[in-house]
Queue: 2 jobs
Job 1
Amino acid sequence: MATATDQNLDSGKLSPTARKMLELQNEVFSEWGKRLRQSVKEAERLPHPILINTFPSLYQNIAEAITPHYPRTTGDDGNTAAAEHGGERARLTNYNANSVISEYQILRWTVFDVLKLNDVQLNDDEVFVINASIDDSICQAVNAFTLAQAALREGFVAALTHDLRNPLSNALIAAQLIQGSIDLEKIKEFAGMITDNLRRMDGMIQDLLDSVTFHAGERLHLRLEEFDIQEVVQNIVEQFTATHGPRFQLIGNTLAGWWDREAIRRAIENIVSNALKYGAHDTPIRIKIDSENERMLITVHNEGEPIPPELSESIFQVFRRAVAAREGNKKGWGIGLPYVRTVAESHGGSVTVDSGVGRGTTFMIDIPVDARPFQDAPTLEGKFDRPPGQDSCP
């Protein structure tokens, strides 16, 4: 269960039919890829990592959904995989809306055909769930595909002014204290306060500049190099453990690929910080490294209250905060998750969220293992944000 969006680690919880579906996953997608390339001309020359995209997540989510009593009603329940897929198709391919619809329809009949060929008998409820999941995915993907080219750009000047004021004020106070002190140890302490606050401001401004660059229609300037993502994640875990205690679990083996080390690090740190801020206190935060279909999957899972479905898209838009953040007076100016999306999309991938009662919240960065061929791909999402309230299907 490497790509189910809730990162279920125990396939033994699934029904026999669901487990059989998982055993046939490679056969399903091999046949689907052949049919898709033959039927949809826009898919003919797509590299495999871009072609496959988030479909394995949908497939494994469906396996969960057909399992009685599993806390997922359809493959799209509580996650944004289909919406992110539609956005990626708009950014990375020459697809049109009909192409998006066709690939889901082809998946539907491929699933049924392969299961039938392997003597897997589906009952009426299972057929209904599969159809409902694919129909919902079509709606979400096409909606995102369309909105990616039509939404208005976010404003941010007020948020910038507000959130830079605190570290600036702290630095100013420390500077004033230095002016009135003759104690060298105190002066060193105040100077350290100034340095810390200026570094905080510099980090905030750097995140802002990267997001502004991306939202102005330009890609991040990536410095791609080959490195082991496990080393980066291990360092992040050690860093957060030193500050917040042993709440962090790292799962996954070594995985080398071509990415921007600093950008990926900052993106993962932002998601982990988000889990600390909004997750249930004193519960584990799980960071997992997976690789499938030549794509790297980094997931961060936390327990706690789920993200309301109507906010699952707006949290990725610059300066839009979830209701919990505003009402709970959470600190921050809302560029952390938009920055994560910026990094993922600049690497030719996406970031998805899966959140629901009984499942907790899982963010997934899903990018090609080798980002070099995709770093110059156009980014419609870079120019436009999706307006709130228009990112869900009825």
Job 2
Amino acid sequence: MHRICLVEDEQSLREMIALNLELEGYAVDTYADGAQAQQLFAGPIHFDLVILDVMLPHVSGFDLCKTIRQNSAVPVLFLSAKGTTADRVAGLKLGANDYLVKPFDLEELLLKVQILINGSVLTEAGSSYQIGDRVVNFTTFEVRNASGALLHTFTKREVQLLELFVEKVGKVISRNEILDRLWGSEQIPTSRTIDNYILNFRKLFEPDPKSPRYFHSIRGVGYKFVKD
């Protein structure tokens, strides 16, 4: 069962969010005070998602996010009545994964929670998958950042390779399997072609392409895609 930490000082909203998350099958720990939550986040963080109100007693959600990022890469979702672009950008720059403005639609909150925890969701626009703060749409072939800005439009084979990685997440995929899946009976490309695809993925998705977090080369075998 996935665990969520919810820090929200408004009691009625906190109870409503927690109830609906629990109905979706999540385990939820709630806190109403920023100082109490900061003590919790100062140590090892054992949650799959943290939901933070921005304006909290004693310690703000922004300051809590700073503390979290010192210890963990756990997804962080901000809730705030402040909905200007500057406010959203400020939250995302601190390392948050998403930002939801109050008042919000409950279904939108649950959808964002699903995306941040599971990394994938079927939307009206098509099948999407989140890698870090990037979201890939397998229908439009687009990848966008957390603010929704278009970063790149993939080729068909790039999307096919990403779909294979997502399907085999956490498993080593051999070069032969990639060649068979993407090219089949067509003319086989050089191994350098696959390497170039991986390099492009790293440039788009990795915080540090020279030290991959998601797309790993397995010497003499192939590649492995892992999530945080």
